[in-house]
Amino acid sequence: MVIEKPFGHDLASARDLDAHVANTVGESQIFRIDHFLGKDNVQSIMAFRFANGLFEPIWNRDRIDHVQITVAETVGVEARGAFYEATGALRDMIPNHMMTLLSLVAMEPPVGFAAETVRSRKADVFAAMPAVNPALAVRGQYLAGTVAGKAVAAYRDEPEVAKTSDIETYAALVFTIDNWRWAGVPFYVRTGKHLAQRLTEIAIEFKKAPYAAFENTSLDSLQPNWLVLRIAPDEGISLQFGVKQRGPAFALKAVKMDFHYADWFEKEPNVG
Predict the structure, then answer these.
(1) Count of beta carbons in the 10 Å neighbourhood of residue 58
(2) Domain extent listing, the chain
(3) What angle do CA 151, 153, 157 make, to 5 degrees?
(4) Of all helices (H) and strands (E), which one includes residue 183?
């Protein structure tokens, strides 16, 4: 049994639906999955973290300042106005796709990659997450404008959308994880329709190095290091760090080491 999202309308209805499903079929007959997990570069988050001894020792609140997870789309709701009116951006994207990305970034190392083991480590992340503070959440709705050089209608003018609709097409929230690895590190999660560019990525900002050694130079401040895991459309990983520019002055420049999946691997054919 596979059930399409959203699963219920709220917590109570989701629990009620889960109880009905459990009374109908056995747990082993239920396929619980988010299709983001089928993406190679999403699966690669675990490979990147746990197969490289360089990164895991600094993957914690001692070295990481914050994490930004973005799923931005240039398309609007298209012909899905009726679906969006009942769902909105928050329920459409955040409890499934974006929580998949967050859990893979934040989970503890599993003892193996069996489904149950990985699921348990991801569940530990959610168990340590306090409820979101409403003051740290933003909802928005696109108006008429131009996206990628084309005029687009306002959300309320889309087919099957109410003229007074208050359903969000943009949502941004701040999550925290109250455990030894992540306490004090904010996770900024945002998603929306009709934004300036299509982009799905995880951007990790590391804490700045101490400035004291540079006090007698022309530098006013140091730039942080960024690690960016690009899920779409340009799949890859980039690491930003500072180097000295050529010349007599002690000036730093932020540069990137960039890995692109397309440079190293053949694109897999779509499976029908």
Answers:
(1) 14
(2) 1-32, 33-264
(3) 165
(4) none
CA dihedral of 37, 42, 45, 51, whole degrees rounded to 10: 80
Cα–Cα distance, 209 to 224 (Å, whole number): 7
Residue the block writes with tokens 């030894």: 180
- Please list the rounded mean pLDDT of every run of 10 residues in the chain (272 residues): 82 92 91 81 91 93 98 94 94 92 96 91 97 95 94 96 97 98 98 96 93 71 91 94 84 89 81 50
pLDDT digits (tens, 9 = 90+) for 21-60: 999 999 889 887 788 888 888 989 999 999 999 999 999 9
Domain 33-264 has CATH 3.40.50.300: no
The helix/strand/coil state of 116 is helix
Convert 182-215 to b/e letters by CB count within 10 Å (16 or more is b).
beebebebbbbbbbeeebbbbbbbbeeeeeeeee
Strands (DSSP E) found in 114-198: 137-140, 145-147, 150-152, 170-175, 187-192
Q: How far apart are CA 252 and CA 211, in angstroms?
A: 13
Nearest CA to 231 out of 186, 255, 198, 267 is that of 198
- In the chain, what is the greatest distance between 2 CA atoms, to the nearest angstrom? 75
3-class state of residue 216 by DSSP: coil
* Rg of the chain taking only CA atoms, in angstroms: 21
Annotated catalytic residue 97: yes
40, 268 in Cβ contact below 8 A? yes
Q: What share of the chain is helix, strand, coil (3-state, %, to 5)?
A: 30, 25, 45
pTM: 0.92
- Say which of 9, 66, 97, 260 is annotated catalytic: 97
- What DSSP state is assigned to residue 221? -
> Residue 201 and residue 183: Cα distance in Å, rounded?
22
Q: What is the dihedral of CA 176, 179, 184, 187, to 10 degrees?
A: -30
